[in-house]
Amino acid sequence: MPRILVVEDDPFNVELFELILKRVGKFDTIITDKGDEILEHLRNGSVDLVIMDVSLDNTYYNKKKVDGIFLSRLIKNDQELKDIPIIIVTAYAGDEDISRILKESRAEECIKKPILNYNEFINLVRGYIRGDE
Q1: Do the beta carbons of residue 85 and residue 50 sit within 8 Å?
Q2: Would you say domain 3-126 falls under CATH 3.40.50.1820?
Q3: How confident is the model at residue 130 (pLDDT cuts 50, 70, 90)?
Q4: Distance between CA 47 and CA 83 in Å, rounded?
Q5: How crowded is residue 77: how many other Cβ atoms within 10 Å of its Cβ?
Q6: Which residue of 13, 17, 112, 123 has the fewest CB atoms within a 10 Å radius of its CB?
Q7: Sheet holding 49-53: strands in order across?
Q8: How large is the average pLDDT for residues 19-41?
């Protein structure tokens, strides 16, 4: 079963992602907003895709406050992790912001919250997971 790492700190959005990904998509999920845990999960090879929130209020990496753009870049700059697809999500973005976020984060996709069409979201996720049926 494909495993998705969700990097999110808002409890409502955590529940929503779990509902969509587990019930609708039948994916296994790991949810965290702790910077060191994120890389640990990725390095152990058990993650097929990352869903990364842009705004993370309480996320730290090496004792420094970071956001989803920083974490995405960190992942994409790592030779061992760079091929793991990242879908970055934000609630506060226009079309120009989406382009900037994609460029800065190096994520494969940037989508706006709230996610209203669950099936479309699941199809997007499936499109990035190799070997998913």
Answers
A1: yes
A2: no
A3: low
A4: 11
A5: 10
A6: 123
A7: 28-32, 3-7, 49-53, 86-90, 109-112
A8: 94
